[in-house]
Amino acid sequence: MVDEKCLVLGIESSCDETGVALVQWQGQAMPTLLSHALYSQIDMHQAFGGVVPELASRDHIRRVLPLTNEVLEASGRTLADVDIVAYTRGPGLAGALLVGAGVACALGAALDKPVLGVHHLEGHLLSPFLSADPPQFPFVALLVSGGHTQLMRVDGVGRYELLGETIDDAAGEAFDKSAKLMGLGYPGGPALAKMAEQGDPTAYKLPRPLLHSGNLDFSFAGLKTAVLVQAQRMVASEAALAAGLPAPSAQPNGGSTEGFGALPLQQRNDLAASTQAAIVEVLVKKSLAALKQTGLQRLVVAGGVGANRSLREQLNAACAKRHVRVHYPELHLCTDNGAMIAMAAAMRLQSGLQQATRTYAFDVKPRWPLDSL
Ligand code: KG4
Ligand code: ZN
User: Fold this and answer.
1) Domain 136-221+267-328, CATH among 3.60.15.10, 3.20.20.220, 3.20.20.70, 3.30.420.40
2) Rounded distance, CA 233 to CA 248, Å?
3) Cα 174 to ligand 1 centroid, rounded to whole Å
4) For the whole model, what pTM was predicted?
5) Residues 179-232: pLDDT tens digits?
6) Do residues 290 and 140 make contact, with C-beta atoms less than 8 angstroms apart?
7) Among 76, 70, 80, 51, residue whose Cα is nearest residue 11
8) 144 in Cβ contact with 171 (< 8 Å)
9) 6-127+334-372 under CATH 3.40.50.1240, yes or no
10) Which site from 204, 283, 285, 338 is most exposed, i.e. has the minimal number of CB atoms within 10 Å?
């Protein structure tokens, strides 16, 4: 029985991406991804400057079944071939989670197949196991998504010890909020990172919060405020210059960043680069501190911010010096997707930690600490 092939359908709907995937495994062999499909709602939410939960839920409803058909067709399977239906149970937006959970449980009930609710961050954490060069346990994990920034010690599937986390904003939020005040839309992380490539990371002096705190916690709210103040200062200086006045020496109090988009491109690129440098430096130094504290020689980076090129370059360089191996998910699996949910379900089932059940009365967990698993 254990050695029979098992096909998991995974459904992700915790935020603004609907993801569906099929993962298969046999015995103790590493599960493999057969197909995955994704629909991003970013264009829809952009007009509002952020995710509108109600609209997100409604859109997940429209997408889940067509995406399911897409992955089944792509891998030459039918619904009848699915052995287990997995879905994101939390954390995330309650209404959005309910859509994935509802569809998964309805499919399970209709097919008489067991279902399994998966932790979204465990999905991110285990997503590097979908890559050609998967990590080995134990490792330190840097989880950097839009809503979470955590360092974990990972000794195996389901064996997670929280080493440190953000006390306010997540790294992704620091990217997104800074990008927003620079007029880069939502989610601005990738756009800010693109601008940063043409900028000077040393141009503006920005804080590195909690860098020397002596623990592994993060804080990014103050950095966002410092970026805001710097942007206001740049706008005020440019306005003064245009009016033939001397640049204001004092910090503009409550000034606007409205004219930011009209500033010379190099200035904007420089602020983007300085912002990214501050975030990346903190993430890199804290990751190194976590490796030192645990004595581990492997680092896994997961979550949307893990797609950031500068973060990857600097982590790779710092870790190479210390003979530490760094693993990332494939670039397209860094942000939310169904593959990581199907994979996490497969790895949990395979490890014997959990069983899928024919319990179709579901609940979701919008708040759900990973180390409580
Ligand atoms: O993991 P994810 O897809 O969603 C959550 O679970 O939150 O992460 C999304 C976050 C957003 O904040 C987005 O701006 C950020 O990841 N992000 C990036 C990059 N790509 C995505 N931040 C910086 N540089 C990138 N290249
Ligand atoms: Zn995520």
Assistant:
1) 3.30.420.40
2) 8
3) 10
4) 0.93
5) 999 999 888 999 999 999 999 999 999 999 999 999 999 999 999 999 999 999
6) yes
7) 70
8) yes
9) no
10) 285
> Which SS3 state, helix, strand or coil, does residue 14 take?
coil
Tell me, using a 6 A CB cutoff, whether residue 303 lines ligand 1: yes
- Do 100 and 14 form a contact (C-beta atoms < 8 A)? yes
Q: How many residues does the chain have?
A: 373
What is the DSSP annotation of 23-56?
EEEETTSPPEEEEEEEEE-HHHHHTTTS--HHHH
Mean pLDDT of all residues in 146-175:
96
What would the pLDDT profile of 16-43 be if each residue is shown by its tens digit?
999 999 999 999 999 999 999 999 999 9
Neighbours of 357 (CB within 10 A): 12
CB of 337 shorter than 6 A to ligand 1: no
Inter-residue contact 347 to 154 (CB < 8 Å): no
Tokens of 345: 């379900």
Q: Kindly list the strands in the beta sheet with 139-144, ordered across the sheet, starting from the edge strand earlier in the chain.
A: 159-165, 149-156, 139-144, 298-302, 325-327
The yes-or-no answer to whether 6-127+334-372 and 136-221+267-328 have a common fold is: yes
CA of 146 to the centre of ligand 1 (A): 5
Is the pLDDT confidence value at 252 over 60? no
Cβ–ligand 1 distance for 88 under 6 Å, the answer no
For residue 140, give the H/E element and its range. strand 139-144
In the chain, % of residues over pLDDT 90 = 90
**Rg of the chain on CA atoms, in Å:** 22
- What residues pair up with 22 in beta bridges, in sequence order? 9, 35
Distances (CA, A) of 37 to 103, 127, 202: 16, 15, 40
Cα–Cα distances in Å, from 355 out to 228, 271, 326, 370?
Answer: 48, 50, 31, 18
CB 328 within 8 A of CB 301: yes
Bridge partners of 162?
152
Q: What per-residue confidence (pLDDT) applies to 251? A: 59
Which of 14, 335, 337 to mutate for ligand 1's pocket (most ligand atoms within 8 Å of CB)?
335
